[in-house]
Design a protein that fits this description.
This protein is mainly alpha-helical and 255 residues long. It has a domain at 22-131: Serine Threonine Protein Phosphatase 5, Tetratricopeptide repeat. The protein has 13 helices and no strands. Helix 4 (73-86) packs antiparallel against helix 5 and helix 11 (205-217) runs antiparallel to helix 12 (221-234). The longest helix has 34 residues, at 2-35. It is globular.
């Protein structure tokens, strides 16, 4: 009986390891598919893990990201909420919930946005409480405090504090957020310095465009043109940069 019992336990353990390995493989497959934009493949890999009596929180979280890419923010929120409920100590899941709620806000009426904003802030704050170095949550809080009205706790000072913490983890993201915050406060010279630092940190089309955009606001047309051209070299499909170049050329053509 003891031999049979040990054999049974070994068999059960082997089955559990096989199931776990299979789940991990499916998550890796889905993650790779999402990265390369194959949403159908990611969806197919995750569906078996995200359904049933015991859905996998990691699969729910990743499927929420797939729904975001599919522009289905309502389902993205539901999936992220379930993942955070099943694994309440996982900072990434709370951060994903905040991201999904943020993406949903522009689709709603003003009063609904106010309700969603509170949930979004709580999700990001929970993520940072669990993991003070969670970059997605730090970005979320920096943007919340930069954009929220004062009555809802909005504060450019608080926004800058979270952006500064982000800069310690990721100089590119931190400088980019600090630039946005300074620009929102109409401190253009300060914003320009942050955008310049971001552009020097990483060859990114968005950073070059933001740098050029503020240069244009400051009347530095030639320098702005150079940055917009650099943007298009990095991303030829960056239509906003193409439009900005045309706008710079329009006064000269009219003259």
């Amino acid at each position: 009986m003891k031999i049979q019992s040990h054999s049974l336990l070994a068999a059960v353990a082997a089955i559990c390891l096989t199931v776990a390995a299979s789940a991990q493989t499916a998550l890796e497959t889905a993650g790779a598919a999402l990265k390369f934009g194959d949403l159908a493949a990611a969806d197919a890999a995750l569906a078996p893990l995200a359904t049933g009596e015991k859905p996998d929180p990691a699969a729910l979280n990743l499927l929420s990201q797939v729904r975001m890419a599919q522009k289905n923010t309502k389902d993205a929120i539901a999936l992220a909420e379930k993942a955070a409920q099943l694994a309440p100590d996982n900072a990434d899941y709370h951060a994903q919930l905040g991201i999904a709620l943020s993406a949903r806000m522009p689709e709603l009426a003003f009063m609904q946005q106010a309700m969603i904003a509170g949930k979004m802030r709580k999700a990001f704050e929970r993520a940072v409480a669990l993991d003070p170095k969670n970059a997605n949550a730090l970005v979320g809080l920096a943007r919340y405090f930069a954009n929220a009205p004062e009555i809802a706790g909005g504060s450019l000072i608080k926004a800058a504090e979270f952006a500064a913490r982000l800069k310690e983890l990721d100089p590119f993201l931190g400088e980019s957020e600090l630039g946005r915050i300074a620009e929102r406060g109409e401190k253009l010279s300060e914003a320009l310095a942050h955008y310049e630092a971001a552009a020097q940190t990483k060859p990114d089309a968005g950073a070059q465009f933001n740098y050029g955009r503020v240069l244009a606001k400051l009347g530095k047309t030639d320098e702005a043109r150079t940055r917009f051209e650099a943007t298009l070299k990095l991303n030829p499909n960056f239509e906003a940069a193409r439009k900005a170049l045309a706008e710079l050329a329009a006064p000269a053509a009219a003259h």
